[in-house]
Amino acid sequence: MNHYLIHLMPRENPDYCFIDKYPKELGLKSYKIAHGERLGPDYPANARVYMTDRYSGIQTPDLVENACGMLIVSKRVKEVLERTIMATVEYLPLTICNHKKRVASSDHFIVNPIGTVDCLNLKASDIVYHEDKVVAVRDFVLDPAKLEHAPPLFRVQEDSYAYIMSEQILEALRTLEPRPTNFLLELLNQVPASPASAPPAT
């Protein structure tokens, strides 16, 4: 089955809005969204974000671009995900305000897949390390054996800001009319890990 990396900053249409801050109501708990930790009752009912002044776009597409690693989608996309995904995911209601601080949308959600999945072929992927810690993943190459029990939408263990979705979700999204806006997906390569060398014969 094919899997796709979701690009959170496609920047293909300047008419779309851009978010560069977490909801201020979250305070220090905003780190939980970045790392796939459950917010539960810590998530405020009045959470809102504001369109950045750096870009003039005001339209709120089905996938809202942001620099915070949040997966922000419209209500209709959220409903497709709910029907397709049986894994543990939080859907956190979010109000988006325009440059004049007026409400532009109250029908968007932060999608928060809980936890991460060990899914990469570490040798085939382009991973930057510093003192044995992952600094960045520049090229995601999947290990098909690790995907056997992966949910349809998940975060990458080595990069919790990276969201990967399966062909199953893509097919479900294609049923929407009109088609979802601002989704830029990258089909990921899958390379089986090399088997461990057999021990020498004795």
TrEMBL record:
UniProt domain Immunity MXAN-0049 protein: residue ranges: 29-181
InterPro entries: Imm11 (IPR012433)
Domain of life the protein comes from: Bacteria
Pfam family, one: Imm11
Protein name: Immunity MXAN-0049 protein domain-containing protein
Source organism phylogeny: Bacteria, Pseudomonadati, Myxococcota, Myxococcia, Myxococcales
